[in-house]
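Backbone-to-sequence.
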């Protein structure tokens, strides 16, 4: 299935219509009707992946590597290059340049490396580039991500029902839109069933720092939080939750074996179909830049199976919300206030997918993130 077009038509068209003013930075607008890049024989194809961490993290990078393996399985004559743990520094530019020098015709940047990536894209017009969590497009560049705020809201509902203290904790990497939208959706889901719930956020300035995540988890629990969530690429805070007798929800993979009593669920992206589809287009000569893709709930992003200690009635209530969202209902409808109490979304208004993707302010009840 081509996920670029399976996304809810109404939402995807709204996203595309708003993109020029909300998402695309000056100088990066692809030409209308730009010609696709030339076709490639499968045996000549080189597809490259730049990862933010080790493929063994059982989180984000494991899932990205699964996408690379799916490409290799679908196109066995092609060559796949995977480089792990690329730092957010000039070393990233060197790595992406090396991909081009080695003949890669398609490069996946599995995180937003900003100008470290952009400088290589601009100098390589014959190479197709795709950037996860990107904001820029060009004739040879598109971005992709997943509408993770929808399953996160569902997990927030479960958290609100399961928490005894009403104090929830969130371990964030950086105060970026991904973490802000995730923490906001989680808080809003929790408050839909527990209006007095609060969410304390600690940012550890890394996507992969087990020691930092451990320390943040312990601090949150010491402060009374009895449910942890976050966007880390490994299972450290789940292990702390298991040891301390609280619950936790995770990102990217089923990690319940690290804390079967604590584990509630996980946000699970599946990039494989999208990646295979993009490579197929590149080989066929039908791929062109400018694409902007958000994988939808139930079609590339979803919750994991519920943990064994989650009561059936909690799972049922949360899943009823999930079905409503899949059916077209949005939980991100006003009135929505920020942390100062100011109304940011008026009653009856709904945040569209562009606003959710670029969310840069925290909702009422969240503390610890810059807004």
């Amino acid at each position: 299935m081509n996920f670029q077009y399976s996304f809810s038509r109404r939402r995807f068209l709204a996203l595309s219509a708003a993109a020029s003013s909300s998402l695309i930075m000056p100088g990066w607008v692809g030409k209308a009707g730009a010609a696709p890049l030339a076709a490639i024989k499968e045996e000549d194809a080189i597809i490259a992946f730049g990862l933010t961490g080790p493929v063994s993290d059982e989180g984000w990078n494991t899932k990205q590597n699964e996408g690379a393996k799916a490409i290799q399985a679908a196109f066995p004559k092609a060559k796949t290059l995977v480089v792990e743990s690329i730092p957010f520094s000039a070393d990233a530019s060197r790595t992406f340049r090396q991909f081009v020098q080695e003949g890669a015709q398609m490069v996946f940047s599995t995180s937003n490396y900003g100008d470290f990536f952009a400088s290589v894209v601009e100098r390589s017009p014959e190479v197709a580039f795709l950037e996860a969590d990107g904001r820029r497009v060009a004739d040879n560049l598109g971005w992709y991500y997943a509408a993770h705020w929808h399953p996160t809201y569902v997990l927030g509902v479960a958290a609100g029902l399961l928490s005894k203290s009403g104090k929830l904790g969130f371990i964030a990497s950086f105060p970026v839109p991904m973490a802000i939208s995730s923490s906001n959706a989680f808080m809003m889901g929790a408050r839909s069933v527990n209006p007095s719930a609060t969410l304390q956020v600690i940012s550890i300035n890394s996507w992969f720092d087990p020691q930092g995540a451990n320390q943040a988890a312990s601090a949150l629990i010491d402060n009374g939080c009895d449910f942890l969530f976050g966007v880390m690429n490994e299972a450290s805070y789940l292990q702390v939750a298991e040891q301390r007798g609280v619950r936790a929800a995770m990102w990217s993979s089923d990690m319940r074996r690290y804390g079967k009593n604590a584990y509630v669920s996980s946000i699970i992206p599946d990039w494989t179909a999208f990646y295979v589809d993009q490579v197929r287009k590149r080989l066929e000569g039908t791929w062109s830049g400018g694409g902007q893709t958000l994988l939808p709930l139930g079609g590339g992003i979803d919750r994991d199976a519920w943990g064994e200690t989650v009561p059936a009635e909690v799972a049922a209530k949360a899943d009823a919300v999930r079905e409503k969202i899949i059916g077209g209902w949005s939980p991100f409808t006003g009135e929505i206030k920020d942390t100062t109490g100011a109304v940011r979304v008026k009653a009856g208004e709904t945040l569209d997918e562009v606003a959710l993707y670029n969310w840069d302010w925290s909702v009422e009840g969240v503390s610890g993130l810059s807004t």
